[in-house]
Every structure is written in C-alpha cells, then in structure tokens.
Amino acid sequence: MPGAPSPAPLPPPGDSGSATVEEFQRLLEGLLVPFASGKGVALPTGSVARLAEYSAFLLERNQVVNLTGCRSPRELVARHLADAVQFAARLPGRPLGTLVDLGSGGGLPGLPLALLLPGARVLLVESVRKKARFLLEAKERLALANVEVLCARAEELGRDRAHRDRHGAVTSRACASLAVSLEYGLPLLKVGGLFLSPKGPSAPEELSAAARAIQALAGRLVDATTYRLPEAPSDFTMIAIEKTGPTPAAYPRPAAQIARKSL
Hints:
Blueprint: H1 21-38, H2 47-62, H3 73-90, E1 98-102, H4 110-116, E2 121-125, H5 129-141, E3 147-150, H6 154-157, E4 167-172, H7 178-185, E5 189-199, H8 203-209, H9 211-216, E6 219-227, E7 236-243, H10 255-260
Helix pairs in contact: 1-2, 1-3, 2-4, 3-4
C-alpha cells in the first residue's frame, strides 16, 4: 500500500517575491508553529490560516505601497511573525485591556498580536494615511473585531485625555531610537502598563542613552531579555519598561522638539 505523499518542501532561505496563502501556511507550520511552541505560546484555533492570509495580502500590497522592507516570504515568517510571537510570550498574565502598536506600518507586530491575543483590544497607530488604509483593509479582511486603526501621530495621542495614561501595553518595533519611542509610548500607558521594544546589537547602547528618558517619563526597566529568531544570524533583545507613575505634564513634547533632541 503506497505511503502518504510527502509534504511540499518549504521555500529555501533565498526565496523572494510574493507567495500564495497555501505556501505561507506551509511556512507557518514548518517555522512559526514550532518556534511558538518553544516559547510557550499556543496559537489560537484558526490563527495559522488567518496569519497565512494576512502574510500573502501584506506582500501583495507591498508591491504597490511600501509597507515593509521584507521582500521574502520566508523572512516574513522567520523574522517578523516570529518577533510577534516573542512579544506575545512577554504579555500573558498581564491585564492588558488595550495594546497600542506604535508606527504600525504594515501591521507588524500589531495584527499578528491581535490573532495571538484575542482577548486584548489592539490599537494600531499609523500616521501615514496610505498605510493606515492598508491596516483597515487587513482588519476587515481578517474579520478582526478586536482591532482599531487610528491614523494619528503618537505625540498627539499622548496629550489626548482619551488615550493619555490609559492603556495596558505599548509595542514599538523599528519605530525610532529607544529614548524617542519611550517619549511617544509611555504617556499612553496606565500606571503598571508595559512598554516593549525589540533591539538588535545596539540594545546596550540604546538602554544607556535612554536612562534619562526612563526616569523622566516615570518608567522602570523590568528586564532586557536576549532571544534568537529562527534562522537569524544574531541575537535580539526585548526591552521591557514598566510605567510607575503618571506622565509628567511636560511630556510628550512636540514632534519637532523630540526630533531635535531626545531626552
């Protein structure tokens, strides 16, 4: 009796261009599911299929709108979606309420986090209108009732009473330097909320440069955890900073001031 057919091979590390939903599903099952399991992150029922649909849609639209620097389906899964798993691994057990993803761009890590953490409300903040439009399309395509998209600047939200000192977690990935991201992100957090930002080899230097910002913005370094992503040549560091008190009235400063000189 003939054996079961062999599964289709994963695309090699040098693959490029777009991929079908089915190809992404194979990549997710071969790379992301084992990685998530090793991190203690259980993927909710149906999330692999929806992540595959999102991934194919992202790379399709990326050919028209610059949503991500990633051009390879394999890189998208092994680097970017795996990074979302690393965020999720840091958040279970915390009363999130709302998670704010700053500078969401193509939705990384915010949209995968909405699938991985279905009990959280996820607010995607993106100031570029065409990127915000993509995020709205992706939200509707994936039927994500726990996602809201805001086309707004982070420093303006930080002075809006509807968002200032309100949210349970803020993620900032490849948005700006740590000191700058903190001035955007900590004003949005409620006391006890958590700011998460992954950094590469520059992590120690960025932490040192952000020491004054952490203190000025009523933050406390919780930890800086080193981790390795699938197929990555070097380590990353997830920096976690807890908000310990209300945001001082002087912050966030106007964007021009933040750009001129970080805290």
